Amino acid sequence: MCDDITESENELYLKRRTLGLGAAATLVAGCKTSAVPEPAGAVGAVAPSGTTMSRSVTVTTPDGEAEGFFVAPSQGKHPAVLIWPDVAGLRPAFEAMATRLAEAGYAVLAVNQYYRSSTLPIFERFDEWMTDEGKAKTKPMFGDLSSEGIAADGAAFVAWLDQQAEVDTAKRIGTTGYCMGGPFTVRTAAAAPERVGLVGSFHGGGLVTDAPDSPHALFSTMQAAALICVAQNDDARAPETKATLKSAADAAGRASEIEVYPAQHGWCVPDSPVYDEPQAERAWTRLLANLEQHL
Fold it and tell me: What is the rounded CA–CA span in Å between residue 32 and residue 146?
């Protein structure tokens, strides 16, 4: 997940990239204070009237009440997708990402993974987390997260989705996660194996650890296919991870697509300083293809 080392790597990457454009100081500063331009027709684009409907929701879990953002096509029943946000939590960028997925034909729930510690809003933009105050705000929230708690949350979110009129329960459920949310997808799939058909991890951290309940060790418990999109700087730091994940998926008989993208940790989220539109769009295309195949 995002940490001080990742941030340093990303800052160096931004400096090198902007120096190559001949505008290092201006662009690096702009990445941290200005709105990130939205790609044409991509996340953040306004949906035509009547295309989707959305609402703020509260989901009961074993540990309390979790807030979420639910969005779905305005007509009919559709396969469901659960979104686990990155370290900066549920915010407008993830609501936009959920809406884009709903426009593609899915009923989508994006959740506040920090509900045990704080109600929404956590942050409005990723760069708010990047400040000293932002990191200090979330640090104690990590202590309220456990592998057991996330698994229980995932099962509760899946059960909630199955109760919604917009969800086609004849189809399996997908779950996507970004940064810290990457391993949460696997814990969700292991907690509700009969329902989750695809996990999608995008620049996810902590997928392979030494713990007995490491996410990669749960592949044999889940029944989902795996789409794992790895950031180039994460791969450079732990190049053995992709092979370990592939071996675990193969041993469990799980279909998997594991690829290192030529982009930095955080590249898929539109308000990230290292958002990379071409590579984000490629990851988006692979997500849609895998959802179509495995749900």
Answer: 31
pLDDT per position as a tens digit, 125-173: 999 999 999 999 999 999 999 999 999 999 999 999 999 999 999 999 9
The torsion of the CA quartet 76, 109, 83, 198, rounded to 10 degrees, works out to -40
Per DSSP bridges, beta strands 80-84 and 107-111 are parallel
Of the pLDDT bands very low, low, confident and very high (cuts 50, 70, 90), residue 3 is low
CA-to-CA dists, residue 144 to 140, 165, 247, angstroms:
7, 32, 31
Amino acid identity at 202: F
Pair of tokens at residue 153:
């949350």
Sheet of strand 256-261, all strands in order from the earlier edge strand to the far edge: 52-61, 64-73, 107-111, 80-84, 173-178, 196-202, 225-231, 256-261
By C-alpha distance, which of 110, 106, 249, 111 is closest to 186?
249
CA distance 145 to 60: 16
User: pLDDT digits over 202-227, tens only?
Assistant: 999 999 999 999 999 999 999 999 99
State the helix-helix crossing angle for 181-191 and 147-162, rounded to 10 degrees. 70
DSSP secondary structure, 143-209, as one string: TT--HHHHHHHHHHHHHHHHTSTTB-TTS-EEEEEETTHHHHHHHHHHHSTTTEEEEEEES---SS-
Measured from the Cβ of residue 228, the count of other Cβ atoms closer than 10 Å reads 25
Residues 6+ apart with CB under 8 A from 217: 248
Predicted TM-score (pTM) of this structure = 0.86
Amino acid 119: pLDDT: 97
